[in-house]
Design a protein that fits this description.
The protein is α/β, with parallel strands linked by helices and 320 residues long. It has 17 helices and nine strands. Strands 5-4-3-6-7-9-8 form a seven-stranded mixed beta sheet, sandwiched between helices. β6, α15 and β7 form a beta-alpha-beta unit.
Length: 320
């Protein structure tokens, strides 16, 4: 019941840019209260608590300093978690306050909280949309995929709603002869082009824009669907997978990256994110059997389920 004490404390530290201020040499609560415009005693208590959590280290006498955890909260840190922390501390935190309403009515808690479904809300709130894109841009499991699936004979990988190309980049780095197609909304593609240039992959990536519920790039060998199907109904998933089957090469492969629901009684992040998807968009995580059933209905067949980090799986399907 006290989990939100820690999560909100990390959120407030991030919102106040404490990691940046400490890195700049403001290491006491008195100095930090001045540069952040906060109440000195309250800020000191927050920082003392964060030391106990391992997010900070030190004390008022010697000065507070960063730990590897708080280094990740800086905006310019490699693999920064700042956008994720702000999103989870603001919109998502407020959303979970309406869990009871969600369970009683079936209406996603996000919609009840903000008066709009999540994606239209992001369309109207660009800073929130930018943060959401930031939370989806990375994943500790991205680098796992080319370790468990051999892309060496793949000519073209199509990453559906691939964001700024974090996942596609890992695949291309591991398979030098493979070309990539990044498919997403136009505003996302512009950011992706800059990201790919910084990774020196520009020459190996082409870009396509559109809505994946309406059209998909054709002719790919492998189609990646990362953290997409868990936000959609079974009927919508079948429609998307059928469209993907029609778009890909005859010997093509579909790789769905999602968490799965484990057998009853087993602990898994899949159970946590099943609840998260319910409150955000009315979505759900699925069992391996449920994915197999979706593939069967789409003219595909489950080939393998490959474990990745953070309880993620690469769920591989090919034409039936």
């Amino acid at each position: 019941m006290t989990g939100y004490w820690a999560s909100q404390s990390v959120y407030v530290a991030t919102k106040l840019n404490l990691p940046e201020h400490i890195a700049a040499g403001h290491t006491t609560s008195r100095e930090l209260a001045k540069v952040t415009g906060t109440h000195e005693r309250s800020l000191f208590q927050l920082m003392r608590f964060l030391v106990g959590l391992g997010v900070l280290q030190g004390d008022e006498e010697t000065g507070f300093s960063l730990t590897p955890s708080s280094e990740l909260l800086k905006e310019d840190a490699p693999d920064s978690l700042r956008d994720l922390v702000l999103m989870y501390g603001e919109e998502f935190y407020q959303t979970w306050g309406n869990l009871l309403h969600n369970v009683q009515t079936g209406q996603p808690a996000f919609e009840a909280t903000f008066g709009a479904s999540m994606y239209p809300y992001f369309t109207a709130n660009q800073e929130s949309a930018r943060r959401f894109d930031g939370t989806m841009a990375g994943g500790a499991f991205f680098a796992d995929l080319p370790r468990v699936f051999d892309f060496s004979k793949t000519r073209t990988v199509v990453d559906i709603a691939g964001g700024t190309g974090g996942l596609l980049s890992e695949v291309l780095k591991a398979s030098p002869n493979t070309q990539g197609v990044l498919f997403d909304q136009p505003h996302v593609i512009e950011a992706a082009k800059q990201a790919m240039a910084s990774r020196e992959l520009t020459e190996r990536v082409s870009y396509a824009t559109g809505d994946y519920t309406e059209t998909l790039p054709s002719g790919g060998d492998v189609y990646l669907w990362s953290r997409i199907l868990h936000s959609r109904t079974d009927e919508s998933c079948v429609d998307l997978l059928k469209r993907c089957r029609d778009a890909m090469d005859p010997d093509g492969t579909v790789i769905v990256l999602e968490r799965t629901i484990p057998p009853t009684g087993e602990s898994s992040l899949g159970l946590w994110f099943d609840m998260q998807m319910m409150v955000l968009v009315g979505g759900t995580e699925r069992s391996e059997q449920e994915y197999s059933d979706l593939f069967d209905r789409s003219g595909l067949a489950l080939h393998s389920v490959l474990p990745l980090s953070l309880d993620m799986f690469a769920i591989v399907a090919r034409r039936a």
